[in-house]
């Protein structure tokens, strides 16, 4: 990366002579000579653009010192330590000057809505300066003045030049269809000081229509100035614009354009900071009447007895984002208030959490959460309570209902109320990585099964492909799961039925010693016919490229009919000892499961999942006579099921769904509660979202390592992608080693 970056262009702007001509003895810092810590307090991140799109984001540096600084080999990062780019050799920022680092030039990553810009010395560890933000700015984030400790939203973008710290007067309301006073444009001053607008220029969408505001015209602090069409000398059309320029006539301060007359007026909601909406009524020279827009944001959930901190969740019930800059949050004490920072927005139908660490006071057992419009006078929404909730207080249904005690805390997501299904965050790390060489397996990768190997830190993963039916033996080499090279495993082994014919549509796999069991929907050679089978293969001594099944249990007749491509998907094995210890219920006998009832069943039951119904079925398989018995059936928790994985150590049966269920999983356990109507049966105990770093792709396989391979409370988790998204079929993440 550093080599590629060395050739990249770095935009350099300065109010001093070109730094590239600076003599060596005038350059204060060279990466290989001076300690980076010497630059702290003189070299600053000064302005940040995080929402540029094309051509890209950028970070502006400012050198407050009287000597040029050589930045060769310094590092620039965002909030992700894995994204690290070095500033090219020969890059110099002049004394009192600026250096702009461009995306796709000096750094290779974009900047997010919630991100951080960090500058490190050439040692890679000394942080010279940084700035973090939680949402995109409407312009840029900038220090005012340059190099100071004061950050804010800039009035104007000043890339590579001194930041513009003047007050930004905004166009606040527009009447283009004439009220009693005709057409007009209302300006608003959001600052706490009056501003002289003399010489500023107002235009519509025609540059020849120019009105110069008279000298000495003042707009009060947090006040309004209305300019009528009789002053402008022109009217405003149904497809027009209102534009405010600096006295030079070229620097645009603010503008708003529309394509039809408003039924009332167009106005910012809230005043000065919000997006333009059609107002509830014209309010020339006074605060805008925002109607539904001002009431869209609700107090939605409250945590007043938090383990780490209290918080209040806001919800935007409208279909457009709402700017909450300047809104005020209070509890029941009017002397305490938290003003929401400038630039804070809440997305359409989205959430914003105000945390105790931000608003600076806790919430009591008998307290109130109140949200006020800017200025802290107009109440937008509130909720009061007299005791702490056992979980949280939240609106049920979410966003619109009355407050009730929720089933579970859902900070920043939809409330979970009585009767709702709760999806918990993935119980492991959020990140996942691809762990196969690109385009190794192609599409159709399906079931996975992890098999520990005695004396080895990492086991073997068995994987099946459903078309053509193939079994792979994978080992972990150099950060990738790779087909074993010996005994003809390099390209996997083709799977055949016991008579040596067919193409097994292999969907699920589970390993038991040297026996591999595969669940199949059909014979691909007769793809229009359902053939739901469990097949056994031996991998003890095979050396050829083909595996012939030693057994087949065709269970099609025992299950409800489904489409030929909607049959058996996942398979796993659960030992008798586990089932009998929990009095697993045998539906075929109407009593607790007794292994003695089933001869030659290999010490446990095989559980299979049906894609088309989402049902899970348990079978006892006679390995001598070839018969089978369906012991039990239960709903896996979703409309479809793609794989099963049993955690014998924690007693958890995982049912995995693919992108049709947003990649969610359900964990089942046997109900052992005396008197329960589901006693002895598997029931859903938790439902989990996929890791946030996982794309919503067609994952048909899932497996994990045993507890013996845990490191720092985490163990390997692995998914297989039938789509081979971006050329990769295997993704690895982590799973907690603790029971839920």
What does this structure look like?
This protein is mainly β and 740 residues long. It has 4 domains: 2-153, Lamin Tail domain (Immunoglobulin-like, Sandwich); 170-291, Immunoglobulin-like (Sandwich); 296-405, Immunoglobulin-like (Sandwich); 433-736, Tachylectin-2, Chain A, CATH 2.115.10. Helices cover 3% and strands 40% of the residues.
Q: How many helical elements?
A: 4
Mean pLDDT: 88
Find the structural class using helix and strand composition.
mainly beta
**Judging from the principal axes of the Cα atoms, what is the shape?**
elongated
Integer count of domains = 4
Rounded Rg: 33 Å
Distance between the termini: 42 Å
Q: Main beta sheet, described?
A: 6 strands, antiparallel
* CATH fold name of the largest domain: Tachylectin-2, Chain A
Side-by-side strand order of the widest sheet:
1-9-4-3-12-13
Tell me the helix content: under 10%
Binned strand content = 35-45%
Identify the CATH class of the largest domain.
Mainly Beta
- Shape-level CATH architecture of the largest domain: 5 Propeller
Uncertain segments: 1-26, 28-33
Tally the beta strands. 59
